[in-house]
Structure formats: C-alpha cells, structure tokens
Amino acid sequence: MTLKLGVPSKGRLMEKTFGWFDRHGITLTRSGSDREYAGSVSGIDGVDLVLLSAGEVPRELASGRIHLGVTGTDLVHEKLPLWEQQVEEIAPLGFGHADLILAVPRFWVDVDTLDDLDAAAAAFRARHGHRMRIATKYHRLVHGFLREAGVADYQLVDSQGATEGTVANETAEMIADITSTGETLRANHLKILSDGLVLRSQATLWRSRTAVVSDQEKAALKALTDRLQ
Ligand SMILES: Nc1ncnc2c1ncn2[C@@H]1O[C@H](COP(=O)(O)OP(=O)(O)OP(=O)(O)O)[C@@H](O)[C@H]1O
Ligand SMILES: O=P(O)(O)OC[C@H]1O[C@H](OP(=O)(O)OP(=O)(O)O)[C@H](O)[C@@H]1O
Questions:
Q1: In this predicted structure, what is the pLDDT of residue 38?
Q2: Which residue CA neighbors atom 1 of ligand 1 most closely?
Q3: Are residues 88 and 120 in the same domain?
Q4: What is the ipTM, given to two decimal places?
Q5: Please, which residues have CB within 8 angstroms of residue 164's CB and are 6 or more apart in sequence?
Q6: What are the protein's UniProt keywords (predicted)?
Q7: CATH number at residue 174
Q8: Whether residue 49 sits in one domain with residue 112
C-alpha cells in the first residue's frame, strides 16, 4: 500500500505546493492535460499524489482517505470542529497567507470595533425587524468568534464566492472573508473592523490522525517527514 498525499488541484496553491516539495527534493507532477486530475510523485518511494479541491482536503484527512494533505489553516479550522484530534500540523509552508476578517461598509463611520458593531446590530434589528446579515463561507469560525465577542444580533448568510459583492448586491449588510492584499475589500468599499481579525491562515502540510497506516506506509511517512526537516 502507498501513502496518499492530497494536494490542491489547481491555481496558485497547487503551483506553490509543487515548488515547496521540489525544494525538499520531492517532485510532484501533474500528468496528462490541465483538466486531468492525475499525477505522480518522484524522489521518494511509496507516495501517491491525490489532486483535489483545497476545500475537500480537510474532510479527506479526517476520514483517513488521505494520509497527508496540503490546505489552508482556515479551511481545516472551519471544516473540522475537532481538528486537533483529527489532524496534526506537520509544517507551515510559508505561502497562501490570508486573514479571515470582519468588514463593514466604509460609509459606516460610527462602526470601527466589535463594540460599535454590537450597538449597530441592535439598532439595525430595531429599525428593520430582522437581524443584520453577514455573508461568509466560514460559518463555524465567524459564529464562534462573535459569540466570544458577545455580538448576537446577526444572521449568517452563505456565500461561497465573490463575498465582497454581497453588500453592493444588498444580500448582506457586511461580510466575513479572507483578505491578503486588501484590494478586493477596497474595490468594494469595505473596511476591516479594528478588532475584527478572526484567524490568520497560511498553506500548511497536515497529517491525518485517523488514517490507518500499514508498516510499509509508516516507513514512507518517516522517510517523507525526515526529508522535510
Ligand atoms: N487571495 C488569497 N491570498 C492568499 N491565500 C488565499 C487567497 N484566496 C484564498 N486563499 C487561500 O487558499 C486556500 C484555498 O481557498 P479557496 O477558497 O479558493 O479554496 P476552494 O474553494 O476549495 O477552491 P476550489 O475552487 O478548488 O474549490 C484557502 O486556505 C485560502 O485561505
Ligand atoms: O485581499 P485580496 O488580495 O484582494 O484577496 C482576497 C480575495 O481572494 C479570495 O478570493 P478568490 O480570488 O479566491 O475568489 P473567490 O471570491 O471566488 O473565493 C478571497 O475570497 C477574497 O475575495
């Protein structure tokens, strides 16, 4: 049996992951056309490449279908409530840096902090008869963060992409999303709450704590982790 290494199947995250392994003497290759999700590993024995969506890596690690996987801290913490029991962080990879933040329209001049938001959310509910909507795909993390902050008068609306556009589109009053350069927030006239940082994320190599590992796979895992030291 071989060790299964799950890696994002496209985009910047895939290219940078390939580059990172390359620098450790392990070559990941995508075979066939751009659309064929198959690949191989050379430079080390007994490891198979599994190409999949970054968003699916946490679930695959938790179910034990892959032994190792690369994805962002944000996706692991969001999708695996018991992540500390299900996965072990092997190495932060030094790219894919992004902050999960809360942002409101720039013209909300009286709202700069979570306390301001709490007051604005109560006023919003009194005026409109429904709770302020926060668009996000990070339901668990945002809910936990706002509970800790004592903010309760809100509802989450699901947004799986182009989240910053939901305010202009009037499907939400504010958003919680990841930002890296801040350009998307600026372009959509949004500002980050000064104490609205939910999580700092970066691409990370994880090991599944639940995957069953044969002796042969154990040897491959040791060879791989030794190489990554
Ligand atoms: N602009 C960015 N800068 C840095 N990192 C980012 C940026 N956008 C996303 N990421 C990170 O990349 C990872 C993948 O994010 P994304 O949400 O695109 O995954 P996904 O939805 O699974 O992708 P897919 O389109 O393959 O389904 C996340 O960990 C995220 O934090
Ligand atoms: O701070 P910035 O550098 O502008 O980056 C932030 C943007 O990057 C991500 O979107 P992505 O491009 O992955 O598309 P998505 O909206 O479909 O998730 C994220 O959701 C933000 O929209």
A1: 80
A2: 180
A3: no
A4: 0.93
A5: 103, 175, 177, 184, 185, 187, 188, 190
A6: Amino-acid biosynthesis, Glycosyltransferase, Histidine biosynthesis, Transferase
A7: 3.40.190.10
A8: no
